[in-house]
Amino acid sequence: EKGGFDHFMLKEIFEQPRSIADSMRGRVQADSGTMQLGGLRDYLDKLAASERIVIIGCGTSWHAGLVAEYIFEELARIPVEVEYASEFRYRNPIIKEGDIVIAISQSGETADTLAAIELAKSKGATIFGVCNVVGSSIARATDAGAYTHAGPEIGVASTKAFTAQVTVLTLMALAAAKRKGTISESLFRLLLAELESIPAKVEKVLQAADKIKEIAYIFTYARNFIYLGRGLNFPVALEGALKLKEISYIHAEGYPAAEMKHGPIALIDEDMPVVVIATKDSSYEKIVSNIQEVKARKGRVIAITTEGDTHLPSLVDFTIEIPKVHEVLVPLVSVIPLQLLAYDIAVMRGRNVDQPRNLAKSVTVE
Ligand code: M6R
Predict the structure, then answer these.
(1) Which of 102, 183, 190, 262 could bridge 177 with an S-S bond, Cβ 3.0-4.6 Å?
(2) What is the pLDDT of residue 238?
(3) Percent of the chain whose pLDDT exceeds 90
(4) Weakly modelled stretches of the chain, pLDDT under 70
């Protein structure tokens, strides 16, 4: 049932070209420049007209929400707030009529997310769900939504669910932007075409698995890790750090790279591995200077770079290349090497990768 892989997690990492494609199937027609999300049809006007979106989720689903915040604001120009469901539900959140709440959950059974939905509903919000399990409690509690079609995710560490969530949330943002008229026809078509190219690009990163394993070997006994990214790669840094801590039990922290100078830079020395997502996009120059700050303090840098970048390899200790991707879609590809790195380190440390200690696949307790 693991399809020849040693663990479900590795199988699920390698399934991503397919699960991303499945999450777009029947929804995206790049040739004709069209798309539709059946589960949103009756609510698309409401989404496009909303003055505020609140996204709720936990763990990896919350990270997908942070990615969606950038995409919704950039394309649809709707202000977005992303909240941990567990915090949202214990405050007295301000929800107005017309507000949209998007609940993200792989399992559809997370207790905090479900309770947050009920609270938002009681205050008059319209609830959209992004779930992977059809008929789950959260899917049933929402007014509308779009399923991710990642297929069953068994490994406790979420991998293919994350990329499926980001895919579906991107489609929601594109649909809202199109309806609102905040996206040009050419960018809309370009992003649909770019989306269709993602599975092949993910496949290409997976082919670098052996190189990633060699890097993992070198850092197997590190005690701490820092992950840095800017813009859309900031939530990817958080996600990379979460993967590493939950399955290898190594302490890891993700930061927006520019925050380093406000404290975490004090941690950098020759024993501190720093994973930097430094793809060629609008914040490239800035992240290069962040890397220089880490190198000046003898930190060891593993950089995720864009194919063909000839500058960074001379600056850092290790590079892992990913294909060029449109900036809006970069998390779908830049997260893949981080999933593999965490997996390899955990395996080398002899951890129970699919069922890490103290964790359950769905957290149905408060
Ligand atoms: O099923 P959900 O998406 O609601 O689960 C949310 C979190 O419990 C989950 O993402 C958790 O953080 C994972 N173990 C992360 O890999």
Answers:
(1) 183
(2) 98
(3) 98
(4) none
Angle at the Cα of 230 (from 101 to 206), degrees rounded to 5? Answer: 90
Ligand 1 centroid, distance to 187 Cα (angstroms): 32
pLDDT tens digits along 84-129: 999 999 999 999 888 999 999 999 999 999 999 999 999 999 999 9
Residue 361 appears among annotated catalytic residues: yes
| Active-site annotation holder among 204, 286, 324, 361 | 361
Distance between Cα 344 and ligand 1 center (Å): 20
Protein residue whose Cα sits closest to atom 14 of ligand 1: 157
| pTM of the predicted model over 0.95 | yes
ipTM of the complex: 0.99
